[in-house]
Amino acid sequence: RGDLQMTSAGTGIRHSEHAHGAKHVHFLQIWSVPSTKGLSPQYFTRHFADAEKRDKWAHVVAPVDAPGVLEKREASGPAPVHSPLHLFATLLSPGKSLSRSFLQASGAQRKGYIHLAQTSGYNPKEASGGHIRVKGAEGEPIELREGDGAYIMAAPGEELTVENVGSSVAEVLLFDME
Fold first, then answer.
1. Pairwise CA distance, residues 51 & 154, whole Å
2. What is the DSSP letter of 51?
3. Which SS3 state, helix, strand or coil, does residue 132 take?
4. 128: pLDDT strictly greater than 70
5. Which candidate, 176, 111, 115, 100, places its Cα nearest to that of 145?
6. 174 contacts 160 by C-beta, under 8 angstroms
7. pLDDT band at 107, cuts 50/70/90?
8. Spatial distance between the Cα atoms of 105 and 65, rounded to a whole number of angstroms
9. How many helices (H) and strands (E) does the chain have?
10. Measuring CA to CA, which residue among 31, 92, 29 is closest to residue 57?
11. What count of other Cβ atoms lies within 10 Å of the Cβ of residue 162?
C-alpha cells in the first residue's frame, strides 16, 4: 500500500503484469492523455506512507512543470505526468472531514473526479467498506461508498469538502484537471 508506479508509454512499450505467489493484488490503473506527442518511454516510482496521507491531502501526481516535481525514476514528491493533471490522496479517518480548493488556472472551469478506493477486498454484493459525503459550493452533497466515483465541475478556487461518514478509514483520490 502506498506505492505508485507510473509508466509513460511515449512512442511505445510492451508491458504485462501479474501477481507472484498466492497473495491477491488490488490496485487502480489510471490513464491520462499526454499534452505532448512523441515522448520517450519512461518509468517512475514513488511511495507515500500512510502517515503522509492520514487525514490530509498528499499530492501524489503533478504535471512535469509544476513546482517541486522531479522527473527522476525514484524521488520524493509527486510523480511527474505530461498532462494537466494533479492527483491528491488521503486516508480519511471515521468522523473526520477534509477540504481542498480546486487549483487556480486559466479558464472558467476545472474538471475533477473523486474516487473512493475499494480496500475491503473483493465483494460482489453491496459495498461494506468506506463511506464518504462530498460537498461542493453548489448543489446537494453526494454520498459515495467503496468503489464509487463522481465527476466534478468546479470554478478555480472552489472548495470541496469530503467527510468520512462510515466506520472505517476511507482511501480517497481526488483528481484536479483542466
1. 29
2. H
3. strand
4. yes
5. 115
6. yes
7. low
8. 14
9. 1, 12
10. 92
11. 23
* CA 117/CA 27 separation, integer angstroms: 9
Q: What is d(CA 161, CA 30) in angstroms, rounded to the nearest whole number?
A: 23
Q: Which of 157, 150, 152 is nearest to 112 (CA)?
A: 152
pTM: predicted TM-score of the whole model, two decimal places: 0.90
Q: 110 exposed, middle or buried (CB, 10 Å; 0-12, 13-18, 19+)?
A: buried
First to last CA, the chain: 28
Reading phi first (left if > 0) and then psi (alpha if -120 to 50, else beta), residue 128 is in alpha
Closest CA to 166 of 89, 88, 96, 117: 96
| Of residues 124, 122, 130, 135, the one with CA closest to residue 161 | 135
Q: What's the pLDDT tens digit per position in 109-121? A: 889 999 999 887 7
The residue with cell 487549483 is 103
Write down how long the chain is.
178
DSSP string, 68-105: T---SSB-SSPEEESSSEEEEEEEEPTT-EEEEEPPP-
Q: How many CB atoms lie within 10 A of CB 21?
A: 6
